Protein 1
Amino acid sequence: MQGQLYVIRPDGKGMRQLTHFKEGTWAGSASFSPDGKWITFAKAGRGGGSGRVCHADGRKRGQASDSHDCLGQRPRLGRR
C-alpha cells in the first residue's frame, strides 16, 4: 500500500507530486488552509501515524501531531 499527495491546477494542468514516501506509507485526508498556503494531511505506515503539514508547493514539510487520532479524519488549519 502506498499513497502520495499531488496538487493540480483547476484546468487539469500542472500536476505535481508533493510527497515521496516509501512503500508501505499512506498519505491522505488532505485539506488546504483557509489562505491556500498550507496543506494538512494524515500519514500512516508500519511505524504508526501522524498529522502532517506542508507548504502548498511541497516545501517546508513537518509533523503537526504524533497522535493516531488524526488517522481517518481530515486535519484542519484555521478557525473552527
Note: The chain has a mean pLDDT of 76.
Protein 2
Amino acid sequence: MNVLLLLIPLGLGLLAIALGFFIWAVRNGQLENLEQEGTRILFDDDLPQAPRGEPGRGAPHDVPHDAAHHHAHHAAHHNANDEANDEANDDVRDRLETS
C-alpha cells in the first residue's frame, strides 16, 4: 500500500510531462503536415553545392578550375540521370495521389 504513495505521484508527473510535450508540439506546428515528412525522402531535391576551395568540400583549392569543362561534365552527368529520376518521381506522385 505504501508503494501507491510513490507510484501515483510518479504517474501523474509523467502524465504532466507527456501533456506538456504534446501541447508544445501542437503550438509549434509539429503536427501540421504529417504526410509531407513521410514522403519527402521519396523525391529528388538538388542540394546547394559548397563553395569551391572550402576545405573538405568541393575540389581542393590548389586544383585549377576550368568552368567550361566543369559545366559540361556536370550537365552530362545530370542529363543521364534526370530522365530516370523524373520518371521515378512521377510514378511515386501518381501512387500518392491515388491512395
Note: The helical segments are 4-27, 34-39, 67-98.
Protein 3
Amino acid sequence: MESLIVAEEQSALFWQLRTAMSLARLKQRLGREDDARQDLKLIYRRFTEGFATADLLAAKRLWREANRFRQMVSDSKKPVRK
C-alpha cells in the first residue's frame, strides 16, 4: 500500500498501475474480485495514451479476468429454468 501512496504523491501513473495490478492479483486470490476490478478500473481510466505498452495490456487482461469471474459468479446465482 505504501508504494501506491508514494506513486500518487509523485504523480507516477505507471507505478500506480503496477501497484494496483499487484494488489488486484492479491485480491483475486483472496476472493475479492470486485475490489480488484474496481482498483484497476480507477487507474486504467486515467491513461490517455500508451495503450499498446506491456503494462497497460497486462492491466487490461487482468481487469478482463476479474470481469469474467464476476460474470461466472453472477451466472451461477441465477435460478435454473426447467
Note: The chain has one domain: 2-77.
